[in-house]
Amino acid sequence: MKTPAIDKDFDPARMHPAPDRPFPAKPFREAEIMWRRLSLMWCRLSLGENPVAFANPSTKPSTMPVALVAWSALGIALNVGLARFAYGIVLPSLRRDLDLNYLTSGSLNAVHLLGYLVGTLAAPSLARIIGLRTLLVRAHVLVAAGALLCAITPHGISDGIPDGTLNGTLNGASGPLVLGVGRLATGIGAGGGIVAILVAALGAVPARERPFVSAVVWSGIGAAVIVCAFAAPLLLQSASGWRVSFAASAILALAISIFFPATGFAANQPQASASLDRPAAAATHFDAAQLLTPRWWFLVATYLLFGVGYIAYATFAGAQFAAAHIQPSIVGLTWAAFGVAVIVGAALAVPVLGATRIKRFALFGAMACGSLGSFVLGAFAPEDSAGATLGGAILVGLGVAATPTIVSAYARERCSAEDYAKAFSYATAALGIGQLVGPVAAGALADHFGMAAVPSFAASAYSIGGLLALCDAVAARSTTHNAASAILQSTTSHGKD
Description:
The protein is mostly helical. The protein has a single domain (66-162, 174-478), classed as Growth Hormone, Chain: A (Up-down Bundle), CATH 1.20.1250. It has helices at 27-46, 66-98, 102-130, 132-151, 166-203, 210-218, 220-237, 241-259, 263-266, 270-274, 294-323, 328-354, 362-380, 385-400, 402-413, 420-449, 453-496. It starts with 26 loop residues before the first helix and ends with a helix. The model is unreliable at 3-28, 45-61, 157-171, 267-283 and 481-492 (pLDDT under 50).
Protein backbone atom coordinates (compact mmCIF):
# COMPACT_ATOMS: atom_id res chain seq x y z
CA MET A 1 0.00 0.00 0.00
CA LYS A 2 1.31 3.41 -0.92
CA THR A 3 2.15 5.96 1.70
CA PRO A 4 -0.68 8.52 1.97
CA ALA A 5 0.26 11.95 0.69
CA ILE A 6 0.10 14.92 3.06
CA ASP A 7 -2.34 17.50 1.73
CA LYS A 8 -2.48 21.15 2.60
CA ASP A 9 -5.65 20.46 4.56
CA PHE A 10 -4.47 18.83 7.78
CA ASP A 11 -6.08 15.44 8.43
CA PRO A 12 -5.44 14.31 12.03
CA ALA A 13 -6.27 10.71 11.16
CA ARG A 14 -3.16 10.57 9.00
CA MET A 15 -0.94 11.67 11.85
CA HIS A 16 -1.09 8.24 13.48
CA PRO A 17 -1.34 5.62 10.71
CA ALA A 18 -3.13 2.34 11.23
CA PRO A 19 -0.91 -0.74 11.72
CA ASP A 20 -1.25 -1.68 8.03
CA ARG A 21 -0.46 1.86 6.87
CA PRO A 22 3.33 2.47 6.88
CA PHE A 23 4.92 5.66 8.11
CA PRO A 24 6.32 8.01 5.46
CA ALA A 25 9.63 6.81 4.14
CA LYS A 26 11.23 10.22 3.87
CA PRO A 27 12.74 11.40 7.18
CA PHE A 28 11.82 15.04 6.63
CA ARG A 29 8.20 14.13 5.99
CA GLU A 30 8.15 12.04 9.16
CA ALA A 31 9.59 14.99 11.10
CA GLU A 32 6.88 17.21 9.61
CA ILE A 33 4.25 14.75 10.78
CA MET A 34 5.68 14.78 14.31
CA TRP A 35 5.72 18.57 14.45
CA ARG A 36 2.10 18.84 13.28
CA ARG A 37 1.03 16.28 15.85
CA LEU A 38 2.84 18.26 18.54
CA SER A 39 1.16 21.54 17.51
CA LEU A 40 -2.27 19.96 17.63
CA MET A 41 -1.52 18.51 21.08
CA TRP A 42 -0.73 21.90 22.56
CA CYS A 43 -3.84 23.43 20.99
CA ARG A 44 -6.08 20.76 22.47
CA LEU A 45 -4.45 21.02 25.89
CA SER A 46 -5.07 24.77 25.95
CA LEU A 47 -8.74 24.05 25.35
CA GLY A 48 -8.84 21.46 28.12
CA GLU A 49 -9.51 18.65 25.63
CA ASN A 50 -7.91 15.27 25.07
CA PRO A 51 -4.64 16.26 23.33
CA VAL A 52 -4.09 12.93 21.59
CA ALA A 53 -7.62 11.92 20.68
CA PHE A 54 -6.54 11.89 17.03
CA ALA A 55 -4.46 8.77 17.81
CA ASN A 56 -7.75 6.93 17.37
CA PRO A 57 -10.35 9.10 15.60
CA SER A 58 -13.15 6.73 16.64
CA THR A 59 -12.37 7.31 20.31
CA LYS A 60 -14.66 9.69 22.14
CA PRO A 61 -12.63 12.69 23.40
CA SER A 62 -12.06 12.80 27.14
CA THR A 63 -11.46 15.76 29.40
CA MET A 64 -7.85 16.47 30.28
CA PRO A 65 -7.32 17.08 34.05
CA VAL A 66 -5.67 20.43 33.36
CA ALA A 67 -5.45 21.53 37.00
CA LEU A 68 -3.86 18.27 38.07
CA VAL A 69 -1.31 18.39 35.24
CA ALA A 70 -0.50 22.04 35.90
CA TRP A 71 0.08 21.52 39.63
CA SER A 72 2.13 18.40 38.88
CA ALA A 73 4.35 20.46 36.57
CA LEU A 74 4.68 23.04 39.34
CA GLY A 75 5.75 20.29 41.73
CA ILE A 76 8.46 19.13 39.32
CA ALA A 77 9.52 22.76 38.83
CA LEU A 78 10.05 23.01 42.59
CA ASN A 79 11.57 19.61 43.37
CA VAL A 80 13.89 19.45 40.36
CA GLY A 81 14.10 22.87 38.71
CA LEU A 82 14.56 25.03 41.79
CA ALA A 83 16.11 22.39 44.05
CA ARG A 84 18.90 21.45 41.62
CA PHE A 85 19.33 23.97 38.83
CA ALA A 86 18.74 27.05 40.96
CA TYR A 87 21.42 25.70 43.30
CA GLY A 88 23.85 25.75 40.39
CA ILE A 89 22.88 29.30 39.50
CA VAL A 90 23.41 30.66 43.03
CA LEU A 91 26.48 28.53 43.75
CA PRO A 92 29.03 31.34 43.05
CA SER A 93 27.45 33.67 45.64
CA LEU A 94 26.89 30.75 48.03
CA ARG A 95 30.56 29.80 47.83
CA ARG A 96 31.65 33.37 48.53
CA ASP A 97 29.29 33.73 51.47
CA LEU A 98 30.11 30.42 53.16
CA ASP A 99 33.75 30.15 51.97
CA LEU A 100 33.30 26.74 50.30
CA ASN A 101 35.55 24.82 47.95
CA TYR A 102 34.19 22.87 44.98
CA LEU A 103 34.22 19.51 46.76
CA THR A 104 32.16 20.84 49.66
CA SER A 105 29.81 22.62 47.25
CA GLY A 106 29.24 19.42 45.32
CA SER A 107 28.84 17.40 48.53
CA LEU A 108 26.08 19.73 49.73
CA ASN A 109 24.17 19.00 46.53
CA ALA A 110 24.95 15.29 46.95
CA VAL A 111 23.41 15.39 50.43
CA HIS A 112 20.20 16.71 48.90
CA LEU A 113 20.26 13.91 46.34
CA LEU A 114 20.96 11.32 49.04
CA GLY A 115 17.77 12.46 50.71
CA TYR A 116 16.02 12.24 47.36
CA LEU A 117 17.16 8.62 47.03
CA VAL A 118 15.86 7.77 50.52
CA GLY A 119 12.53 9.48 49.88
CA THR A 120 12.09 7.73 46.54
CA LEU A 121 12.74 4.26 47.96
CA ALA A 122 10.42 4.87 50.92
CA ALA A 123 7.61 6.37 48.85
CA PRO A 124 5.80 3.16 47.74
CA SER A 125 5.63 1.77 51.29
CA LEU A 126 4.58 5.11 52.75
CA ALA A 127 1.89 5.51 50.09
CA ARG A 128 0.36 2.15 51.08
CA ILE A 129 0.38 3.12 54.77
CA ILE A 130 -0.75 6.76 54.74
CA GLY A 131 -2.15 7.15 51.22
CA LEU A 132 -0.75 8.88 48.17
CA ARG A 133 -2.23 12.31 48.81
CA THR A 134 -1.12 12.37 52.45
CA LEU A 135 2.36 11.41 51.29
CA LEU A 136 2.38 14.32 48.82
CA VAL A 137 1.22 16.83 51.44
CA ARG A 138 3.66 15.75 54.15
CA ALA A 139 6.54 15.49 51.69
CA HIS A 140 6.10 19.09 50.60
CA VAL A 141 5.75 20.30 54.18
CA LEU A 142 9.15 18.71 54.77
CA VAL A 143 10.50 20.42 51.64
CA ALA A 144 9.23 23.77 52.95
CA ALA A 145 10.86 23.24 56.34
CA GLY A 146 14.18 22.22 54.78
CA ALA A 147 14.20 25.13 52.33
CA LEU A 148 13.45 27.58 55.15
CA LEU A 149 16.35 26.15 57.16
CA CYS A 150 18.63 26.67 54.15
CA ALA A 151 17.45 30.27 53.84
CA ILE A 152 18.46 31.10 57.44
CA THR A 153 21.85 29.36 57.27
CA PRO A 154 24.44 31.36 59.29
CA HIS A 155 27.44 32.92 57.55
CA GLY A 156 30.70 31.04 57.34
CA ILE A 157 32.68 33.35 59.65
CA SER A 158 30.96 35.87 61.86
CA ASP A 159 32.36 39.31 62.38
CA GLY A 160 34.48 39.63 65.51
CA ILE A 161 35.53 35.97 65.67
CA PRO A 162 39.12 35.50 64.51
CA ASP A 163 39.55 32.97 61.71
CA GLY A 164 41.75 30.01 62.73
CA THR A 165 40.61 29.93 66.38
CA LEU A 166 38.49 27.07 67.73
CA ASN A 167 35.40 29.28 67.98
CA GLY A 168 36.02 30.60 64.49
CA THR A 169 36.41 27.09 63.10
CA LEU A 170 33.24 25.83 64.78
CA ASN A 171 31.32 28.90 63.67
CA GLY A 172 32.66 28.52 60.14
CA ALA A 173 31.50 24.90 60.04
CA SER A 174 28.01 25.72 61.30
CA GLY A 175 26.98 27.29 58.00
CA PRO A 176 27.65 24.24 55.79
CA LEU A 177 26.25 21.96 58.52
CA VAL A 178 22.94 23.79 58.74
CA LEU A 179 22.75 24.04 54.97
CA GLY A 180 23.46 20.32 54.69
CA VAL A 181 20.64 19.43 57.10
CA GLY A 182 18.25 21.64 55.15
CA ARG A 183 19.33 20.15 51.83
CA LEU A 184 18.86 16.62 53.22
CA ALA A 185 15.32 17.45 54.36
CA THR A 186 14.38 18.97 51.00
CA GLY A 187 15.80 15.91 49.25
CA ILE A 188 13.77 13.43 51.31
CA GLY A 189 10.60 15.43 50.73
CA ALA A 190 11.29 15.83 47.02
CA GLY A 191 11.85 12.08 46.60
CA GLY A 192 8.48 11.18 48.09
CA GLY A 193 6.73 14.12 46.48
CA ILE A 194 7.88 13.38 42.92
CA VAL A 195 6.76 9.73 43.12
CA ALA A 196 3.34 10.82 44.43
CA ILE A 197 3.01 13.51 41.75
CA LEU A 198 3.87 11.26 38.82
CA VAL A 199 1.78 8.30 39.96
CA ALA A 200 -1.22 10.61 40.47
CA ALA A 201 -0.81 12.50 37.19
CA LEU A 202 -0.15 9.47 34.97
CA GLY A 203 -2.76 7.33 36.69
CA ALA A 204 -5.50 9.90 36.07
CA VAL A 205 -5.31 9.70 32.27
CA PRO A 206 -5.64 6.88 29.71
CA ALA A 207 -2.51 5.12 28.50
CA ARG A 208 -2.51 6.89 25.13
CA GLU A 209 -2.26 10.29 26.86
CA ARG A 210 0.53 9.45 29.29
CA PRO A 211 3.51 10.38 27.09
CA PHE A 212 2.04 13.84 26.55
CA VAL A 213 1.13 14.33 30.22
CA SER A 214 4.57 13.12 31.28
CA ALA A 215 6.21 15.61 28.89
CA VAL A 216 4.12 18.51 30.20
CA VAL A 217 4.86 17.60 33.82
CA TRP A 218 8.61 17.24 33.29
CA SER A 219 8.75 20.48 31.30
CA GLY A 220 8.20 22.20 34.64
CA ILE A 221 11.99 21.91 35.03
CA GLY A 222 12.46 24.25 32.09
CA ALA A 223 9.87 26.70 33.38
CA ALA A 224 11.69 26.92 36.71
CA VAL A 225 15.04 27.47 35.01
CA ILE A 226 13.59 30.26 32.85
CA VAL A 227 12.27 32.05 35.94
CA CYS A 228 15.67 31.68 37.59
CA ALA A 229 17.34 32.98 34.43
CA PHE A 230 15.48 36.29 34.64
CA ALA A 231 16.49 36.54 38.30
CA ALA A 232 20.11 35.46 37.63
CA PRO A 233 21.66 38.96 37.74
CA LEU A 234 20.03 39.61 41.13
CA LEU A 235 20.88 36.15 42.47
CA LEU A 236 24.52 36.46 41.39
CA GLN A 237 25.23 40.04 42.42
CA SER A 238 23.26 40.16 45.67
CA ALA A 239 24.88 38.72 48.78
CA SER A 240 21.51 37.33 49.92
CA GLY A 241 20.37 36.09 46.51
CA TRP A 242 20.75 32.42 47.41
CA ARG A 243 18.71 32.96 50.58
CA VAL A 244 15.88 34.48 48.55
CA SER A 245 15.95 31.44 46.28
CA PHE A 246 15.52 29.02 49.20
CA ALA A 247 12.80 31.18 50.78
CA ALA A 248 10.85 31.21 47.51
CA SER A 249 11.13 27.41 47.36
CA ALA A 250 9.69 27.14 50.89
CA ILE A 251 6.68 29.28 49.94
CA LEU A 252 6.03 27.28 46.78
CA ALA A 253 6.26 23.97 48.67
CA LEU A 254 3.66 25.14 51.17
CA ALA A 255 1.37 26.22 48.33
CA ILE A 256 1.63 22.77 46.73
CA SER A 257 0.88 21.01 50.00
CA ILE A 258 -2.27 23.11 50.47
CA PHE A 259 -3.69 23.56 46.96
CA PHE A 260 -2.65 20.43 45.03
CA PRO A 261 -5.88 18.97 43.50
CA ALA A 262 -7.30 15.94 45.28
CA THR A 263 -9.22 14.66 42.24
CA GLY A 264 -6.26 12.89 40.67
CA PHE A 265 -5.76 10.57 43.63
CA ALA A 266 -9.24 9.10 43.49
CA ALA A 267 -8.63 8.11 39.87
CA ASN A 268 -5.31 6.54 40.70
CA GLN A 269 -6.51 3.46 42.57
CA PRO A 270 -5.25 0.21 41.07
CA GLN A 271 -8.78 -0.92 40.25
CA ALA A 272 -9.44 2.23 38.24
CA SER A 273 -6.00 2.33 36.64
CA ALA A 274 -6.12 -1.25 35.44
CA SER A 275 -8.72 -0.44 32.82
CA LEU A 276 -6.46 2.29 31.44
CA ASP A 277 -3.47 0.02 31.11
CA ARG A 278 -2.22 -1.89 28.13
CA PRO A 279 -3.76 -5.23 27.19
CA ALA A 280 -3.30 -7.83 29.91
CA ALA A 281 -1.24 -10.00 27.54
CA ALA A 282 1.45 -7.31 27.30
CA ALA A 283 1.63 -6.46 31.01
CA THR A 284 4.15 -8.27 33.19
CA HIS A 285 4.53 -8.53 36.92
CA PHE A 286 7.47 -6.52 38.22
CA ASP A 287 9.81 -7.35 41.07
CA ALA A 288 13.35 -6.35 42.00
CA ALA A 289 14.84 -9.46 40.39
CA GLN A 290 13.76 -8.16 36.96
CA LEU A 291 16.25 -5.29 37.28
CA LEU A 292 18.96 -7.80 36.36
CA THR A 293 17.26 -8.82 33.10
CA PRO A 294 17.95 -7.07 29.75
CA ARG A 295 14.38 -5.77 29.80
CA TRP A 296 15.28 -3.43 32.68
CA TRP A 297 19.04 -3.49 33.29
CA PHE A 298 20.12 -1.33 30.35
CA LEU A 299 17.31 1.15 30.99
CA VAL A 300 18.13 1.55 34.68
CA ALA A 301 21.89 1.80 34.03
CA THR A 302 21.31 4.47 31.39
CA TYR A 303 19.16 6.44 33.80
CA LEU A 304 21.89 6.21 36.45
CA LEU A 305 24.50 7.64 34.09
CA PHE A 306 22.09 10.35 33.00
CA GLY A 307 21.91 11.34 36.66
CA VAL A 308 25.71 11.50 36.86
CA GLY A 309 26.05 13.62 33.74
CA TYR A 310 23.25 16.14 34.06
CA ILE A 311 23.76 16.86 37.77
CA ALA A 312 27.49 17.47 37.22
CA TYR A 313 26.53 20.07 34.61
CA ALA A 314 23.69 21.55 36.68
CA THR A 315 25.77 21.87 39.85
CA PHE A 316 28.86 23.50 38.39
CA ALA A 317 27.67 25.29 35.25
CA GLY A 318 27.18 28.51 37.22
CA ALA A 319 30.65 28.20 38.75
CA GLN A 320 32.15 27.59 35.32
CA PHE A 321 30.41 30.66 33.94
CA ALA A 322 31.87 32.68 36.82
CA ALA A 323 35.34 31.20 36.24
CA ALA A 324 35.13 32.24 32.58
CA HIS A 325 34.18 35.80 33.69
CA ILE A 326 30.97 35.77 31.65
CA GLN A 327 28.76 38.80 32.23
CA PRO A 328 25.65 38.23 34.39
CA SER A 329 23.40 39.29 31.50
CA ILE A 330 24.92 36.58 29.27
CA VAL A 331 24.60 34.08 32.11
CA GLY A 332 20.91 34.92 32.39
CA LEU A 333 20.47 34.52 28.64
CA THR A 334 22.24 31.15 28.73
CA TRP A 335 20.04 29.82 31.53
CA ALA A 336 16.93 31.11 29.73
CA ALA A 337 17.99 29.29 26.55
CA PHE A 338 18.64 26.21 28.65
CA GLY A 339 15.15 26.39 30.16
CA VAL A 340 13.50 26.80 26.74
CA ALA A 341 15.52 23.84 25.44
CA VAL A 342 14.32 21.73 28.38
CA ILE A 343 10.68 22.43 27.48
CA VAL A 344 11.28 21.86 23.75
CA GLY A 345 13.08 18.59 24.47
CA ALA A 346 10.21 17.31 26.61
CA ALA A 347 7.70 18.34 23.92
CA LEU A 348 9.65 16.66 21.12
CA ALA A 349 9.77 13.44 23.13
CA VAL A 350 5.99 13.05 22.73
CA PRO A 351 5.81 12.54 18.94
CA VAL A 352 9.00 10.48 19.03
CA LEU A 353 7.40 8.13 21.58
CA GLY A 354 4.40 7.91 19.26
CA ALA A 355 6.49 6.93 16.23
CA THR A 356 6.81 3.16 16.12
CA ARG A 357 9.98 3.06 14.05
CA ILE A 358 12.14 5.39 16.11
CA LYS A 359 10.55 5.08 19.56
CA ARG A 360 13.19 2.59 20.71
CA PHE A 361 15.97 5.09 19.97
CA ALA A 362 14.40 8.04 21.81
CA LEU A 363 16.53 7.53 24.93
CA PHE A 364 19.72 7.30 22.86
CA GLY A 365 18.88 10.61 21.19
CA ALA A 366 18.35 12.34 24.52
CA MET A 367 21.66 11.04 25.88
CA ALA A 368 23.46 12.04 22.68
CA CYS A 369 22.26 15.63 23.14
CA GLY A 370 23.74 15.72 26.64
CA SER A 371 27.02 14.20 25.50
CA LEU A 372 27.44 16.62 22.60
CA GLY A 373 26.45 19.63 24.71
CA SER A 374 28.93 18.78 27.46
CA PHE A 375 31.65 18.21 24.87
CA VAL A 376 30.96 21.60 23.24
CA LEU A 377 31.15 23.34 26.60
CA GLY A 378 34.45 21.66 27.50
CA ALA A 379 36.14 21.87 24.11
CA PHE A 380 35.23 25.37 22.94
CA ALA A 381 34.61 27.39 26.13
CA PRO A 382 38.26 28.57 26.45
CA GLU A 383 38.19 30.09 22.93
CA ASP A 384 34.57 31.21 22.69
CA SER A 385 33.09 31.36 26.18
CA ALA A 386 29.74 32.93 25.35
CA GLY A 387 29.07 30.86 22.23
CA ALA A 388 30.19 27.57 23.76
CA THR A 389 28.21 28.04 26.95
CA LEU A 390 25.06 28.98 25.03
CA GLY A 391 25.36 26.14 22.51
CA GLY A 392 26.27 23.60 25.17
CA ALA A 393 23.38 24.72 27.38
CA ILE A 394 20.86 24.28 24.57
CA LEU A 395 22.08 20.79 23.70
CA VAL A 396 22.19 19.61 27.32
CA GLY A 397 18.80 21.18 27.98
CA LEU A 398 17.16 19.24 25.14
CA GLY A 399 17.83 16.01 27.01
CA VAL A 400 17.19 17.08 30.60
CA ALA A 401 13.40 16.72 30.67
CA ALA A 402 13.18 14.47 27.61
CA THR A 403 15.10 11.70 29.36
CA PRO A 404 12.77 11.26 32.38
CA THR A 405 9.80 11.63 30.03
CA ILE A 406 11.12 8.77 27.91
CA VAL A 407 12.13 6.61 30.88
CA SER A 408 8.69 7.12 32.47
CA ALA A 409 7.05 5.96 29.23
CA TYR A 410 9.38 2.97 28.85
CA ALA A 411 8.83 1.89 32.46
CA ARG A 412 5.08 2.32 32.16
CA GLU A 413 5.02 0.00 29.15
CA ARG A 414 7.10 -2.70 30.80
CA CYS A 415 4.92 -3.30 33.85
CA SER A 416 1.29 -3.31 34.94
CA ALA A 417 -0.54 -0.35 36.46
CA GLU A 418 -0.31 -1.88 39.93
CA ASP A 419 3.47 -2.28 39.68
CA TYR A 420 4.25 1.11 38.16
CA ALA A 421 4.93 2.89 41.47
CA LYS A 422 7.42 0.19 42.46
CA ALA A 423 9.08 0.07 39.04
CA PHE A 424 9.36 3.84 38.78
CA SER A 425 10.70 3.98 42.33
CA TYR A 426 13.55 1.61 41.44
CA ALA A 427 14.32 3.52 38.23
CA THR A 428 14.32 6.81 40.11
CA ALA A 429 16.54 5.26 42.80
CA ALA A 430 19.10 4.50 40.08
CA LEU A 431 18.85 8.12 38.98
CA GLY A 432 19.35 9.14 42.60
CA ILE A 433 22.53 7.08 42.90
CA GLY A 434 23.89 8.77 39.79
CA GLN A 435 22.96 12.18 41.13
CA LEU A 436 24.69 11.30 44.40
CA VAL A 437 27.95 10.35 42.68
CA GLY A 438 27.95 13.13 40.08
CA PRO A 439 28.46 16.29 42.15
CA VAL A 440 31.00 14.74 44.53
CA ALA A 441 33.14 13.32 41.71
CA ALA A 442 32.83 16.49 39.63
CA GLY A 443 33.72 18.67 42.62
CA ALA A 444 36.82 16.61 43.39
CA LEU A 445 37.90 16.81 39.74
CA ALA A 446 37.33 20.58 39.70
CA ASP A 447 39.50 21.08 42.81
CA HIS A 448 42.37 19.03 41.34
CA PHE A 449 42.21 19.78 37.61
CA GLY A 450 40.15 22.96 37.32
CA MET A 451 36.61 23.60 36.12
CA ALA A 452 37.43 22.40 32.60
CA ALA A 453 37.38 18.82 33.89
CA VAL A 454 33.68 18.97 34.80
CA PRO A 455 32.17 19.08 31.28
CA SER A 456 34.56 16.32 30.17
CA PHE A 457 33.38 14.19 33.08
CA ALA A 458 29.74 14.89 32.22
CA ALA A 459 30.33 14.08 28.53
CA SER A 460 31.91 10.74 29.47
CA ALA A 461 28.92 9.77 31.63
CA TYR A 462 26.49 10.79 28.89
CA SER A 463 28.43 8.88 26.22
CA ILE A 464 28.57 5.60 28.17
CA GLY A 465 24.88 6.03 28.95
CA GLY A 466 24.16 6.53 25.25
CA LEU A 467 25.82 3.21 24.42
CA LEU A 468 23.71 1.49 27.08
CA ALA A 469 20.61 3.16 25.61
CA LEU A 470 21.44 1.55 22.26
CA CYS A 471 21.71 -1.82 24.02
CA ASP A 472 18.31 -1.18 25.59
CA ALA A 473 16.85 -0.47 22.15
CA VAL A 474 18.15 -3.81 20.86
CA ALA A 475 16.88 -5.63 23.96
CA ALA A 476 13.47 -3.96 23.69
CA ARG A 477 13.16 -5.01 20.06
CA SER A 478 14.04 -8.59 20.95
CA THR A 479 11.55 -8.65 23.82
CA THR A 480 8.77 -7.20 21.68
CA HIS A 481 9.47 -9.71 18.90
CA ASN A 482 9.41 -12.64 21.33
CA ALA A 483 6.16 -11.42 22.92
CA ALA A 484 4.53 -10.97 19.51
CA SER A 485 5.62 -14.44 18.45
CA ALA A 486 4.21 -15.95 21.63
CA ILE A 487 0.86 -14.18 21.15
CA LEU A 488 0.73 -15.28 17.50
CA GLN A 489 1.53 -18.86 18.42
CA SER A 490 -1.12 -18.86 21.15
CA THR A 491 -3.71 -17.44 18.77
CA THR A 492 -2.85 -20.03 16.12
CA SER A 493 -3.12 -22.90 18.60
CA HIS A 494 -6.50 -21.67 19.82
CA GLY A 495 -7.66 -21.39 16.21
CA LYS A 496 -6.75 -25.01 15.58
CA ASP A 497 -8.63 -26.06 18.69
